[in-house]
Write a structure and sequence with these properties.
By secondary structure, the chain is of the alpha+beta class. Helix content is about 15%, strand content about 40%. The chain has an eight-stranded parallel beta barrel with strand order 22-23-24-25-26-27-28-30. A seven-stranded mixed β-sheet has the order 29-42-43-41-56-50-53. A hairpin with a 5-residue loop joins strand 17 and strand 18. The longest helix is centred in the middle third of the chain and has 25 residues. The radius of gyration is 31 Å and the shape is globular. The protein starts with a helix and ends with a strand. Bound molecules: (2S,3S,4S,5R)-3,4,5-trihydroxy-6-oxo-oxane-2-carboxylic acid and calcium ion (CA).
Length: about 900
């Protein structure tokens, strides 16, 4: 062995390579796991045969598909992973730890049949020392048991996001010497920085290093810290000796350094230092361990008078929240997607990220450090607590994991806990018991606050509350954290936009001196839905645009609002939700696969330091409308820009030159049938910046009767003011209108609206079974007498779309609609006849009894139209009122 080492060293020198052999190595063990989604007896045992289990790699979740399918619920229980790992004999004198970046949510690891440790909680990192269980020079069987069952002692108890189970982040093996910078303290780096004084002249840096000596001999060490600046120049080296007793761990070692003329860290200039901590055997000078941590030097303050102040300058914090999931992948994301998300926020001009509602992948934090994104990180106590010791203990433990794991991140300025903790009062109606519950919540909040301040005296704390001021105030929660957070949805879940402004001003009046962060605000956008007459709760892009235009203005006008986080950066999975896209919360300003919605484009125009010209409606590529006298169809287009003026061209022709007001230039675009190329030119002082957008416009002839040769298809949603685009089918649906001779439309009836506690909603938002085109079925016309289309002679396919939105099968209360629950509006039987051109094609149709409520039913007919008769569909009631949800007419010949 010795010979081999010396040969190696010799050959390094021979090649002229000055390599330092690293005293610690870390490599991932993500591949080649056998997996089964059930509990299996003896699965931890070495001899267990896992040959018929499936083969998976980490990151992995077992809920990627069942949390998005049409069966309510998803698997919440035990899953096992197994693999063997060869650990070479030359590792004999090493300490070996396994490091999990996260697994949801209870995990136990077995190495060679023996338990190596357990961890509770789905979002924090953890490590186990497995040195004693490993067999060197042999294959070692690793068996991991994970459980994502509901556990009343582990936060979160409930939340508006899917609790995907599995080992969904990277897993590493870490080899160190037995004398090392401790790897065991909350899976942290074992090195902790405080910067109690930073200014332009100097920064005071206190470093606490935890040291472990796993050897049976006392050893004298030299601990050295090198401070390297962003140009890779070592600006300071400090070293000190310490006698480290045998068999000890996590022995704190303190050093205080002063960095002169520091390069300051800020969003515009995120200068990072590296602190490299090395420990040497003082006698032999052998390098025993080496750890690198990022260091950013900045000072900051949250005030009501000047807002947030960074390095002496006021800075409004604007950004988003973020959930860690992606289209089809659930929460099992590769690092690259995490990286991409933080870049998306930076490119938007954002400087603030609320890492909601739980600690995320370390690479997210790394990106925030590097790109200059200020963050708050939080533990996932959401909606409610369990009033017992175990829940308290686990919550505090989680808070400590969070704090220690991201302790040195310059990006982190705020530790957050308890999101909307009074949303779900467990003792509704029992005011005495509820008071006690308030006290329990208050007591837990105080404990967490106390623990965080003890572990990290410098940073701020934040507690995000929903819009029920009185409850939080009465429970004393508005007083405990250093900053108060508000999640506000006025004008979405109910009410009007301006109630956002009055809520804030009233709350500030009562909480003088407390800085506020708008920790959430947003409105759902199904990226397939659009409207020229947007309404609250219609899920259209255009409604959300108005919502955000109002909110951001109110936020910018108020100094005591030190920052705001849009809810949310991305659409995200929430299994219990129904909505226009079931199982998804659509409040993202990008989609599940991160295509930017208009709201993203708007914020980019407002906050980016680059020159921005973004034509709105980029996700609305197929449009439709009825031809006017010039055979065109005027529809509005917004261009988001930070130019002074914008010119807009349609197919090369200038159609307007508009002043940009609040970063928006508005145009009425006379679309023509077929290809429409829009080009926007932003007129800046010294240059022009362009953006273009191609739109396929499907012109509906105004004179349908004489449209031979131009009419091909029409798709109409009844009772709707919305447009719906299906990108894969390349179809576009348009709102209904009343019939006029020569044209098309309904006769009689009225548009269905959904009654809720906060007024009528323009459409149902229940999951429609049997379709992914839910919005087509979520509106309807009730009491309809006929639908007529005066199409030219020919053969047509007519499809009638039905879904009973008011069936008496009671639908469960949608818990996440923040008090916006539906009011019962079920109907008894509806039976009706449907005839097409006088032939009764659907006698005694009873949709609810035949198919059940909220189920998509499409009836397709071939219709021969002759002698200019057009298409006339008649609805004749037998019992109750007839209805129709949508109709598609397609010309065959
Ligand atoms: C909230 C919650 C968040 C939800 C959001 C919503 O207030 O904090 O978890 O996703 O509202 O969309 O309703
Ligand atoms: Ca990772």
């Amino acid at each position: 062995m010795k010979n081999l080492v010396s040969i190696l060293i010799l050959s390094f020198f021979a090649l002229g390579v000055y390599a330092t052999v690293s005293p610690r190595t870390k490599h991932s063990i993500n591949e080649n796991w056998r997996f089964v989604r059930s509990d299996v007896e003896n699965a931890m045992q070495v001899q267990f045969n896992d040959a018929d289990w499936s083969l998976v790699s980490f990151p992995h979740t077992w809920n990627a598909s069942d949390a998005a399918d049409e069966t309510p619920g998803f698997y919440r229980g035990i899953g096992w992973y197994r693999r063997s790992i060869q650990i070479s004999a030359d590792k004999q004198d090493k300490q070996i730890s396994i490091f999990f970046e996260g697994a949801n949510q209870e995990l136990e690891l077995f190495v060679n049949g023996k338990s190596a440790g357990k961890h509770l909680g789905g979002y924090t990192r953890f490590s186990f020392d497995i040195t004693k269980l490993v067999r060197f020079g042999e294959q070692n069987i690793f068996a991991i048991k994970v459980n994502n069952r509901h556990n009343e002692n582990i936060p979160p108890l409930s939340a508006d996001f899917t609790f995907f189970g599995g080992v969904y982040r990277d897993v590493f093996l870490l080899f160190t010497n037995k004398i090392n910078v401790s790897t065991s303290h909350y899976a942290s780096a074992g090195v902790y920085f405080q910067t109690p004084r930073v200014n332009h002249q100097e920064a005071l840096l206190e470093i606490k290093t935890l040291l472990t000596n796993g050897n049976p001999t006392n050893t004298k060490l030299r601990v050295e810290h090198s401070i390297v600046n962003s140009q890779n120049k070592t600006v300071l080296v400090n070293s000190k000796q310490i006698q480290l007793a045998k068999n000890t761990s996590e022995i704190p070692f303190l050093q205080t350094l002063i960095i002169k003329n520091p390069d300051l860290w800020s969003p515009d200039s995120p200068s990072l230092y590296k602190v490299i901590t090395r420990i040497y055997n003082n006698k032999t000078n052998e390098l025993l361990d080496e750890v690198l941590q990022p260091l950013g030097l900045r000072w900051y303050e949250f005030t009501t008078e000047n807002g947030f102040v960074l390095n002496g300058k006021p800075l409004k914090l604007i950004g988003t929240n973020r959930h860690q999931c992606f289209d089809q992948l659930g929460n099992a994301l590769p690092d690259e997607i995490h990286v991409r998300d933080v870049k998306l926020l930076k490119d938007m001009g954002g400087n603030f990220l609320r890492i909601s509602h739980y600690p995320q992948d370390p690479v997210v934090m790394e990106m925030c450090d590097k790109l200059g994104i200020i963050t708050s990180v939080e533990i996932p106590i959401v909606n409610a607590i369990t009033e017992n010791e175990a829940f308290s203990k686990n919550s505090i433990e989680m808070a400590r994991e969070m704090v220690f794991q991201d302790y040195n991140r310059p990006s982190v300025l705020i530790w957050t806990y308890m999101n909307e903790v009074l949303l779900r009062l467990p003792y509704k109606g029992d005011s005495i018991r509820n008071k006690q519950y308030f006290q329990s919540v208050n007591a837990l909040a105080q404990k967490i606050e106390h623990q965080i301040r003890l572990d990290d005296p410098q940073r701020y704390t934040l507690l995000p509350m929903h819009g029920n001021f009185n409850d939080y105030h009465e429970a004393g929660l508005t007083q405990i954290p250093k900053i108060v957070g508000w999640n506000l949805y006025q004008g979405w879940y109910g009410g009007r936009f301006d109630q956002f402004d009055t809520f804030l001003d009233n709350a500030q009046e009562k909480l003088k001196g407390k800085p506020f962060i708008i920790t959430e605000y947003g409105a759902d956008v199904d990226p397939r839905l659009h409207s020229l007459e947007p309404q609250r709760f219609d899920y259209t892009q255009e409604y959300a645009n108005l919502y955000h235009e109002h909110y951001i203005k109110a936020i910018m006008e108020r100094k005591y609002v030190v920052g705001a986080n849009i809810w949310n950066l991305n659409d995200f999975y929430s299994e219990e939700r129904e909505n226009a896209v079931p199982h998804v919360n659509n409040k993202g300003i990008t989609t599940l696969s991160r295509e930017p919605k208009d709201t993203y484009l708007q914020y980019q125009a407002m906050f980016s330091s680059q020159r921005v010209v973004n034509i709105g409606g980029q996700l609305w590529k197929i449009r439709t409308g009825i031809a006017d006298a010039n055979n065109s169809c005027k529809q509005p287009i917004k261009v988001y820009s930070n130019a002074e003026r914008v010119e807009l061209f349609l197919n090369g022709r200038l159609i307007g030159n508009q002043k940009v007001i609040n970063n928006i230039a508005q145009f009425e675009v006379p679309f023509v049938n077929g290809a429409n190329t829009l080009e926007a030119v932003g007129l800046f002082q010294s240059e022009k910046v362009r953006d273009d957008l191609k739109i396929d416009f499907r012109m509906i002839p105004s004179d349908l009767k004489n449209s031979m040769g131009t009419f091909n298809e029409i798709n109409i949603m009844l009772g709707s003011k919305r447009y719906f685009e299906n990108k894969s089918k390349a179809t576009i649906w348009l709102p209904e209108k009343e019939y006029q001779p020569g044209s098309w439309g309904y006769v009689g009836g009225k548009a269905y609206t959904k009654p809720t506690r906060h007024g009528q909603q323009p459409a149902s938002d229940s999951d429609i079974l049997g379709t992914t085109e839910d919005p087509i079925f979520q509106t309807k016309r009730v009491g309809i007498e006929a639908f007529k289309l005066d199409v030219p002679d020919g053969e047509y396919t007519v499809s009638l779309f039905f879904a009973e939105l008011q069936a008496s099968t009671s639908s469960k209360m949608l818990v996440y609609n923040l008090g916006n629950e539906a009011i019962d509006n079920t109907v008894n039987e509806r039976i009706f006849d449907v005839s097409i051109n006088k032939t009764n094609v659907l006698p005694k149709l009873n949709i609810a009894s035949e198919f059940g409520g909220n189920t998509a039913v499409v009836k397709k007919f071939s219709v021969l139209v002759q002698n200019g008769q057009g298409i006339s569909i008649d609805f004749d009631p037998v019992i109750g009122e007839p209805f129709l949800n949508a109709i598609r007419v397609y010309r065959n010949y």
